[in-house]
Design goal:
By secondary structure, the chain is mainly alpha-helical. It is built from 6 helices and no strands. The model has no long low-confidence stretch (mean pLDDT 90).
């Protein structure tokens, strides 16, 4: 993609008062999420003593939360409105990450905290991402939508 096309998409996002902060949130989450995912696995296995199968079950629980979020994301917007849905889902997703360093003690308790954090955190993140992307799709002209999304 030529630099001019990339700049067209970037300008569309940066110029929009709602898309600019959403892009900042998504970029931050994407950047730090890469570190977090790696450290999460190391923490669960090496520090908490979970086996690889237990970690796989936790991650699969997150997938169930994400699937439920995909089914229910529209209902939250209809009930709460877009702004409240975005704020609430971001807050819940962030709060769930706080459960992870709190996981400790007996293995079952630690695994339970991680499971709640994984399911609820992935649920909230997917609700946020679906609605943020929907806002992007309605706010940006079709001719530059792909560039703005990138």
């Amino acid at each position: 993609m030529p630099a001019g096309e990339i700049l067209d998409g970037l300008r569309a996002v940066v110029a929009h008062p709602l898309l600019r902060p959403l892009a900042a949130v998504l970029a931050t989450r994407s950047f730090f999420g890469s570190f977090f995912g790696t450290l999460y696995a190391l923490y669960a296995i090496q520090v908490l003593g979970l086996g690889p199968a237990a970690l796989g079950i936790l991650v699969a629980g997150g997938g169930v939360g994400a699937l439920l979020a995909a089914l229910l994301a529209g209902r939250f917007v209809r009930r709460l409105g877009l702004g409240a849905t975005l704020l609430l889902s971001a807050a819940i997703g962030g709060a769930m990450t706080l459960l992870i360093p709190l996981a400790g003690g007996p293995l079952l308790l630690a695994a339970g905290l991680l499971f709640v954090a994984q399911v609820a955190g992935d649920f909230a993140s997917v609700v946020y991402e679906i609605n943020a992307l929907s806002l992007l799709q309605t706010a940006v002209p079709d001719r530059i939508l792909g560039r703005a999304n990138a």
